[in-house]
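Handout, section B. The chain below has 434 residues.
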Amino acid sequence: MEWWTVLLFFFGGFVVLILTGFPIAFAFFLINIVGAFLFMGGVEGIKQLTLNMYSALGNFTLTPIPLFILMGEIIFRSGIANNALNVFDKFFGKIPGRLGILAVAASTFFSGLTGSAISNTALLASSLMPEMHKRGYGKPLMIGPIVGTGGLAMMIPPSALAVVLGSVAHISISGILIGGILPALIMASLYSLYIITRSIIDPSIAPDYEINRISPGNIFKEFLIYVLPLFSVIILVLGPIYMGIATPTEAASLGCVGSLALTLAYKKLTLKVLYDTLRSTLKTSCMIFLIIAGSIGYSQIISFTGAGTGLIGCVTSLNLPDTVLILLMLSVLLFLGCFMDQVSMMMVTMPLFMPIIFQVNINPLWFGLMMLIALDIGFTTPPFGLLLFVMKGIVSDDITMVDIYTAALPFILCNLITLGLVLAFPQIVLFFIK
């Protein structure tokens, strides 16, 4: 059987199952079982596939995933992030588009605590949108800054998806966690520049309003009480990783302990918070591990059948420049982002892309971080970007999907500019990596 027919079977079968409403994890497993039976010797192939997936899930590099999720759930479910949000609100004064800038700053900060794009978007939408509506903000700056910045949680540690990407791609997890920080800050800066510029050009969509004057001393006091402790949790996670004195797993454990200690200190830890936190962590972690297991089986069958070798040989025989090759791969991801969720995109493309990247000696960490940005863009890409539907589930009925699509487009453009900068200047992501 030709290598391209094997790939067509897997990719086509997976897409068909997803379109029929099959859960992602079970779609992977079904395709893998059929593929192992057809290409790996029937029942014996299925047995070998099961053993391989079990062995892969025992990999120590996957342990930060549930810990990062637990850390974010503690912060989100306990509600201690809302106090920090109020402090940020008082800090920005009369900057044009102040509430939009507040959304960007809060999303950037909370990304280092929750690691979840959905949690970020839900938190900011429920906290900021009523105030934006009350102040007469237009839909572009009421919706856009919230839905457009949610994906920063995928770039800034602790990002569970970054850990998944690093594990499956066999690249440094510490490197991909640290390397995503500067691109995320560039994105946040571009978002802020757009919001301020748009507010100056069209003041009607971000009306100015009087705010209660608060002394710098009071703001500083509230900063020490509500923001600095949360910031210390971020340092507790990133500091040991960057200094090389702790693995991502150990740093994630420290983050969980720090989050739990803060929740206790603020007297927010109740049985309900604890139950909701553990339940959500278990549910999300199991989903991710099932998908990883399915993807590992998929990549092993691709390798066994020689389909991966065939694809590598075909691509390398074209002698394409590295930049063109990377652009083709990123284009595939950006296209898939219109229709698929991030984990599915990662799992379908990673076993095909990474062997080519290693074969042509492209820096895998650089490519992995560009892939992370492309996956981030998929969060807000019409028509099926996940955060677009999260937003629709929160906003009032008078806001349509078209309104949400339109508001998200400038932020997608900011992300594309960042992706272009990282492609042109690799040191943006490699500078801080030892």
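Note. The CA atoms of residues 292 and 347 lie 7 Å apart. Compare this with the example in section A.
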